[in-house]
Amino acid sequence: MSTLNKARWLGWLAPLTLAVAATGVHAADDVTVAYQTTVEPAKVAQADGVYEKATHSKINWRKFESGAEVIAAVASGDVQVGYVGSSPLAAAASRGLPVETFLIAIQIGSAEALVVRPSINKPADLIGKKIAVPFVSTTHYSLLAALKHWQIDPSKVQIINLRPSEITAAWQRGDIDAAYVWDPALGKAKETGKLLVTSADVGKWGAPTFDAWIVRKDFASKNPDFVTAFAKVTLKAYADYNANPKAWIANQANLDKVSRLTGAKPEEIAGLLEGNGYPDATQQSNLLGANTVKAVAATSAFLKEQGKVDSVQPDYAPWVEGKFVRAAR
């Protein structure tokens, strides 16, 4: 993480800073939305300008490489709406960042994975090796959970904090032995490496992960229509894909748009989409309640155990809000 983002990350704990940043948000006519390179159906709606049309707002889309960077930007007030994984979400909530999870974007499966050099054949072979991962990301959480499952002390491996683009460069130089990451970095590493475990496997071991859309609470309270419309566009995109995934994937225009926003190769997109789940409106209503609160609490407890957060909240319900999805149905 850059020095600037580190400063922002630490700065979010100052209520005065957050209050000052909040005063800059008055109406949803110029909104900054942080997105990542995750392959998912709603990227088509983003490419087509559907979000702008539905919200009647000007949206400044900013691409980030990790959830930790998104959280830092949201904390600073630079971003009002952001796409993050469950691990950075849990870290943010544990630190008291005033945000709400208003939609579950993805239930992560095989689209995030640990790729290793061909010489690594079993988990024990990781001991002493260099493993790259974006810190405080879903893949970081999954890596630590996998090591715990394999009974490998994290101190016995060299875990290095790198952004996805840095992972690609480090892999190509031969500087690292393994990486737990998502596409396009994952796909590039797989060209000369092999998968040792995926997040679908880690989820079955008791550490599921997901991606979510979050919004600053101050912005949401002033602009509920924007958040509802944003959720509605996303759910429509998921419904279109879930209704007939094969037909959706057969549409070359869809693949080209997703590729342009994510960097994934068009021929890889089908496999990446199939590696995750995209909850519909009914599922969202069930998820945005006790299930997600429990998942965030469990993730936070794990992060505290690993020394990634100093403390946990007594209740994570204030960071999960289902009213926008209900209004969007």
Automatic annotation (TrEMBL):
Q: Mind listing the GO biological process terms from this record?
A: alkanesulfonate transmembrane transport
Q: Does the keyword Signal apply?
A: yes
How is this protein annotated for GO cellular component? periplasmic space
Query: Where does the signal sequence lie?
Result: 1-27
Keyword annotations for this protein, in alphabetical order, are: Signal
Q: In which domain of life is the source organism classified?
A: Bacteria
- Domain annotation Solute-binding protein family 3/N-terminal: ranges: 30-252
Annotated Pfam families: NMT1
Instruction: Cite the InterPro entries for this sequence.
Output: Peri-bd_TauA, Solute-binding_3/MltF_N, SsuA/THI5
Q: Where in the cell is it found?
A: Periplasm
Say where the protein is mainly found: periplasm
Q: Which family does it belong to?
A: Belongs to the bacterial solute-binding protein SsuA/TauA family.
Q: What is this protein called?
A: Taurine-binding periplasmic protein
Q: Gene that codes for this?
A: tauA
